[in-house]
Every structure is written in C-alpha cells, then in structure tokens.
Amino acid sequence: MQVITRIAELRERLGQNGSQGKPTSATHAQQTVAFVPTMGNLHAGHISLIQQARPLATTVVASIFVNRLQFAPNEDFDRYPRTFDADCEGLKAAGADVLFFPEERELYPEPQGFVVQPPAIGQMLEERFRPGFFRGVSTVVLKLFNLVQPQIAIFGKKDYQQLRVIEALVRQLALPIQIIAAETGRDHDGLALSSRNGYLSPAERAEAPRLYQTLQAMQQRIRGGERNFLALENDAIELLRSHGWRPDYISLRHRQTLQPASADASEGVIVAAARLGTTRLIDNIEV
Ligand code: PAF
Predict the structure, then answer these.
(1) What are the pLDDT digits (tens) for 131-176?
(2) How far is the CA of 228 from the centre of ligand 1 (A)?
(3) Whole-number pLDDT of residue 20
(4) What domains, with CATH codes, occur in the chain?
(5) By alpha-carbon position, which residue is closest to atom 6 of ligand 1?
(6) What is the dihedral of CA 11, 14, 20, 24, to 10 degrees?
(7) Is the CB of 159 under 6 A from ligand 1?
C-alpha cells in the first residue's frame, strides 16, 4: 500500500496528471477507483468497507483526514483518536492500494471560503445538535471526490443521515460516482462500531448496547402493528433517560427523505442519537 500525503502525488498515482481525461498509460486504461474516506482510528467496520471495495475496483483508495470543518468548537477535534500505524496495518491487510493521508495545510492551504451548503436533508436531526456538521462533511467529501475522482465510494449506514446527504450531493451535483451503502458493523453485544466507543468507561461500555436494544424493541412493536409513533419514540426516550442517557433524538423517518415516516411506516428507519456520560453515540435500524 502506498501512503500519499501530497495532492500532486495522488493525482500522479491515479493518472490524473493533465492528460485531458485520457488514460496516461495502458495501466490506467481499465482503472476503476473505489474510495473509502475516513477520519482514521479504524475499526472492523471501516476495514469491512475496504474489503467490500476490493473486488469492485482495480484501485482501492482510502483516506484518513480528521476534518476540522465538521467539528463544532465544543466538540472533540483535538482529542479525536489518531492511530496512524495501526490504521495502516489494517488498511494494508484489507487490501487497500493507496492511503491518502494529507496534512491539514495540504487540504486547506487557505481558509476554506467555498463551502457546500446542504439541502433540507442535511438540516434536520444531527444538524440540530451539531450545527455546521453536514456543511463540513459535504465540503470535505466533495473536495476528496474531486481529488480521488472515484467511480465508486462506500459509506457506512451507521452514519445514516450522512449517507443520505452524500447521495444527495452526488445526485444534485451530477457527480459520476456510485455510492454504495454498507451495513453497520456491530460488536458481539450489538453496539455499533464507532471510533467514539473508545471514550466510554467500562461501566458506560456495559450500558451502551441498550441504545441498539431499544431500537430493536421499537422495530418489533412497529412490526407488531404499533402505529402511535410519537408514543413509541417517547417511551424509548424515557427508557434511556431512566438508565442515565441523555437522548438528543429518537425518531422514525422515511429511509430516503428522512422526513417523518408515513402512517404505515413503510420504508422506515429509526434514527437515534444519545449521550452516555460525555460520549455521544448514534445508531439506527431499518424497519
Ligand atoms: O464518516 C466520517 O468518518 C467522516 O464524516 C468523513 C465521511 C470521512 C468526512 O470527514
């Protein structure tokens, strides 16, 4: 696996060096690039995205970049775990060909004045609790897409709203990229894999699976015919509160639009975000 820190070198490696769109060599003629953007501190969920990309492309590119633009001033940008050596090992073993690992001044050599303003799908749920988050995500992802120019990009369903925002970005800006949605990786007890799980104390880690269990119980009640979604959401919020959580939202939405679900809950997804101690966890379940 080649680790590349400079944009010029990345473009050279991917055959984008001023050939006016034509392949620069026979090697590049058939090249399909699959891209997995990350912020590092990789876990088995990330690794499975690389493994899913591997058979789909001649070149699998991963990126590691902790994107300051998507962190609010009170969030964990400074303490976000940086585990480069372990990440490299994992990416190499999973079959990545290229790791793009730019420094901040390489990606943002000047203040990023041009930004991507997300549409309605990026202005609800997470955005209400993390103002500017999807603007930061959309801006860096568009920039990375522009640098890597992949035909395929893979995003996990764990960040369900992020996935839908990126799909809208690709659709509305007519980017020639196929977005593949990957299932959420889970620990043995159901907890969704996340870099932020590392912040949990042992007691919090033992409590954390309750979030997914609560979503599963809601799913069962909907499948059993429950149609009072508001009561269902409120029950779930109260249950988590009684176990020391501070829920931001638990909401049944339409899978594509993320608008409140229709009366029959068809094409539904329950999305949730809740704080346990100082750690904010998100999860979801399709209904
Ligand atoms: O999901 C993430 O890790 C980040 O939001 C992403 C997509 C890499 C953009 O910084």
Answers:
(1) 999 999 999 999 999 999 999 999 999 999 999 999 999 999 999 9
(2) 34
(3) 42
(4) 2-182 (3.40.50.620), 195-286 (3.30.1300.10)
(5) 38
(6) 120
(7) yes
